[in-house]
Amino acid sequence: MKRVHVIGAGLAGLSAALAAVRGGAAVTLHEAAPQAGGRCRSYFDDKLGCVIDNGGHVIMGANRAAFAFLDEVGGRAHMVEVAPAAFPFLDLATGERWTVRPNAGRIPWWVFARARRVPGARIADFLHALGILRAGPEDTVAQFLAPGSELYRRLWDPLATSVMNADPREAAAQPMAEMVRQTFFAGEAACRPWVARAGLSRAFVDPALDLLRTRGAVLRTEHRLQRIAFAAGRADALHFADGSIPIDADDAVVLAVPHAVAPSLVPDLVAPDDARAIVNAHFRLGRPAKLPDGLPLLGLVGGTAQWLIVHDDIVSVTVSAGDALAERPNDQVIALLWRDVARAMSLEPDRPAPSRLIKEKRATFAQTPVQVARRPPPRTAWRNLALAGDWTATGLPATIEGAIRSGAAAIESLRKSMPQ
Ligand SMILES: Cc1cc2nc3c(=O)[nH]c(=O)nc-3n(C[C@H](O)[C@H](O)[C@H](O)COP(=O)(O)OP(=O)(O)OC[C@H]3O[C@@H](n4cnc5c(N)ncnc54)[C@H](O)[C@@H]3O)c2cc1C
């Protein structure tokens, strides 16, 4: 491949671009938005007067592709690791606090240790959950997790809802099982949560763009692909508002746009066609935001807010599978979320901090069994066109790890389908 045109500069596109330059190709990234990063980015917020992320993101120690990406671009220093692995929780209904602490080694004996597991959880419920490792393509997460149990309410529900961005009663079990295999059955280090120290773009996006530029790649922002022309079994030209770019015989295209966009560009593409929302609120406290234990994150049950992530004087609140919440007026959502933040952090409930609410209505595709079955592989019917994105068939939930893997997989697929 001489030149690769990467369409979409989210993490999948950036990962594809890095893999292509590693292989010696010239790369042009075409991005519709004014900036790169897609659903994983930071921006300067005028109202809050500081840089915030589009939404709080957590990656796990197990995310090998994400760390390989961070190490290649030099972004790891901009992440904070929770080591040893710990997931602190607060039950807003009862005021109880506990911290889940996975142990070292591959056998998760922490489920038997009172000080490491969820209060009120029964060993039998943990054992029941092992069934998810044998889940079939039509199974949902909740089938294996004993809904109604304390373990479900206090661990599986918050964990699975955030990992799958879907209610566990509708979420596909197989991608969740893969995540469980790679974390809980891989030891403590694989379970460590990592968050961005001062914004996602600093860790993932800016250093990747810097590296790509030094390797000759070109990023064209506000350059939305409108149409792909096909001829003789290959993508033949890319059409943009400002003109067309012919695709030479040795050139390839990676389409790394969201699931909702790809079918409008690729004829007869079967792709997920339903999405779930994530609601995020950022509160700027005006003084350092500290959580109990000094950890950067806290899981909440029994309220509206699900996860808090803090850095500097910002508290970011995440609500996954937040479709119903996203339909409510902004002031109501902020009031609900501030009530939970104030409770969790002992702040004044009647004096909400300045805030920014971000409703990502298409945060991920709806990861139900039906939708998961629609995830396409990277390879397409056109030999020089491959697909990437968290919605492609990575076998993983729609996450940073999946997006980054998909970019490399797209380049790998092109290497196989195109004559060298
Ligand atoms: C609020 C929120 C919280 C999340 N939390 C987590 C988390 O905690 N952990 C985790 O691992 N993952 C999380 N995710 C998921 C993660 O952000 C995504 O999986 C990942 O960023 C997807 O990357 P992508 O490159 O596949 O897609 P995108 O980031 O959507 O990139 C696609 C790009 O294509 C561009 N584009 C669209 N149409 C065109 C066109 N016609 N021409 C050119 N460009 C086009 C878009 O502008 C975009 O930049 C979260 C997502 C959201 C929204």
Shape: globular
SS summary, helix count: 12
Share of helix, binned? 25-40%
Gap from first CA to last CA: 7 Å
The CATH class of the domain at 3-42 and 200-273 and 368-417, by name, is Alpha Beta
Percent of residues in beta strands? 15-25%
Written account of the structure:
- With 420 residues, the protein is an alpha/beta fold.
- Among the domains are: 3-42 and 200-273 and 368-417, FAD/NAD(P)-binding domain; 105-188, no CATH class.
- It has 12 helices and 20 strands.
- It has a 7-stranded mixed beta sheet, with helices on both faces. Strands 10-2-1-14-20 form a 5-stranded parallel beta sheet, with helices on one face. Strands 5-9-6 form a 3-stranded antiparallel beta sheet.
- Strand 3 and strand 4 form a beta hairpin.
- Helix 1 crosses helix 12 (400-417), helix 2 packs across helix 7 and helix 2 (64-73) crosses helix 12 (400-417).
- The radius of gyration is 22 Å and the shape is globular.
- The model has no long low-confidence stretch (mean pLDDT 95).
- Bound molecules: flavin-adenine dinucleotide.
- Flavin-adenine dinucleotide (FAD) is lined by residues 7-13, 30-33, 38-40, 54-55, 57-59, 224-225, 256-258, 261, 278, 280, 360, 363-364, 389-390, 398-401, 403.
Brief rundown of the structure:
The protein is an alpha/beta fold and 420 residues long. Among the domains are: 3-42 and 200-273 and 368-417, FAD/NAD(P)-binding domain; 105-188, no CATH class. Helix content is 28%, strand content 24%.
Features:
420 residues; alpha/beta; FAD/NAD(P)-binding domain; seven-stranded mixed β-sheet; five-stranded parallel β-sheet; 12 helices; 20 strands; 28% helix; 24% strand; binds flavin-adenine dinucleotide
